[in-house]
Amino acid sequence: MANKSLVLYDVKPFGSIKEMLQMAVDENGDTIAYRYRKGEGVVDVSYRQFQAETLALGTELAAMGLASGHIAMLGENSYKWLCVYLMALQSEGVYVPLDKELPPADLVHVLTHSDSTVLFYSAQFEPFVRENRENLPQIRYFIGLEREEDDGEFLSYDALQARGQAKFEAGERAFADMKSDVLDTKMIVYTSGTTGAAKGVMLTEQNLCSCVYYGLQVSTLYQTGLSVLPYNHTYEAVAGILSAIHKRCTMCINENLRQVLKNLQFYKPDFVYLVPAFVEVFYRRILAAAKQEGKEAALKLLVKSSNAARLLGIDKRATLFKKIHENFGGNLKKIVCGGAPIRPELGDFFEGIGISLINGYGITECSPLVSVNQDQNNDCQTAGYPLPCLEVMLDEKTPDGNGEICVKGPTVMKGYYKMPEMTSEVIVDGFFHTGDYGKLNADGQLIITGRKKNLIVLDNGKNIFPEEIEKYLYKIPYVADAVVFAVKDETGQEVGLAAEVFLSAEQLEKRKVTNPEQALRRDINLGMLLLPAYKRISKIFIRPVEFEKTTTNKIKRSSLMFADTAHK
């Protein structure tokens, strides 16, 4: 295959988040920055108004002596979450976004470990902050986003902002004139990985600005986006929210994950950031609807015919698949996908109906973007092109080009907060060792093959990444989730593969599957006929309940129920 040239988009440089927002106000101040539902209506906020609200909030926080400390946020996605976020990034302080799915004990630990001195929180966490006040002595104030009035150290967000606005209008400039070194820590993001304890990833302002600037050079954004994924994760908060500000996009806030399809139809966005699990759901719903109408085979044939016509320069996807497009609002051009590999079948299908599925690869420690595909050079079997500011090295590379992905450049974190030894273990000679394995194809696109920690080494010396085998399991329509792991003999040697799966009751019923175990064994054997014997599943376990997952919808492999059984 011939090399494809990487064409970079022209992106205006900037030196800080404050400068980036000011540029947006100066050049597109009246453009709608955010749209969100409030009661029965929709609120539109311009870039000018958004900046003014962050300045008011920061002015009062500076007057309270809190704008140079560690500022924590706990709550669901909301407009006020974004106000606190951009306020903190323009301050001399450090922003600490918290995972709202953490249990109370873990939240207390993260707040304490991060040295946060002020906590903004949404209404659902009022009981948590009240019950744990004595466990958080370093927190000086708790600011409730929905509180109507102050109550001692429990303050009202609206009242605080109003006081700040009055001070700013009276000429108070302490916050507005704040500057910080771009190499200082600006965010501490606690990881919620599938293995291991949470670590506080220190990201500098240079890290954040580099991710936005170089990321937009590789993959551009359109005018209107739907903001779906949790804001405490860098994928949405940096690659999504901050990049959208620099592109002057209008971001529509999805208030609830159950409302995604409804809000796609309501806001009619051009693009959306998602994880593959969402795309899998969309894909299966489209096929299920077609099957119910007796048109599944016709749909697949139409996609093939459309693809053939496009090779001849004829593109009628908008007309041929109009009904499907209307289910997504009618304007959706691009789904940016990260967090896990995408099955090629999904990429081919969505490209075939006229919605580009742009796959990328990132990790929190890299702010988070490492690589992403381009609209014009999109290959869903890869994670795209590394950002032009990064040097990617494959450590301990095998003869077939597979090695641990190591990244060096301005998006790589400063280190783990208060964990210097752990930092030195993963950053060696400036290269961050991601723990992910991959290789580069002839076009320079990165292909992710699996997690280093998940690697299975059989007694015959064969290496297997379970993620590769799991792709085959996900092709079975009624398999909702799957994890492949090793079968061990009495000496502890890994001698084969087992799969633990959770099945979709809805799909089983639709497909009239009366004996799930028998059907599963048959479909797994058929699906893996072309694989070498050592990559085939020898034991199958069906879970009665779903896998435990992270907030980015990744399965926690530690939640396996039948691993011990498989080893016997």
How do you describe this structure in short?
The chain is α/β, with parallel strands linked by helices and 568 residues long. β20 and β21 (431-440) form a beta hairpin.
What characteristics describe this protein?
568 residues; alpha/beta; Rossmann fold; GMP Synthetase, Chain A, domain 3; 3 domains; nine-stranded mixed β-sheet; five-stranded parallel β-sheet; 19 helices
Bulk shape: globular
Tally of strands: 27
Supply the helix-strand structural class: alpha/beta
The assigned CATH architecture of the largest domain is 3-Layer(aba) Sandwich
CATH topology assignment of the largest domain? Rossmann fold
C-alpha-based Rg, rounded:
24 Å
The percent range for strand residues is: 15-25%
| Mean pLDDT reading | 92
Specify the number of helices: 19
As for the number of domains, it is 3
* CATH H-level superfamily title of the largest domain: ANL, N-terminal domain
Largest sheet: 9 strands, mixed
Can you identify the CATH class of the largest domain? Alpha Beta
Q: Major sheet: order of its strands?
A: 2-1-11-10-12-13-14-15-16
The termini sit apart by 46 Å
Q: Helix share of residues?
A: 25-40%
Low-pLDDT stretches are none
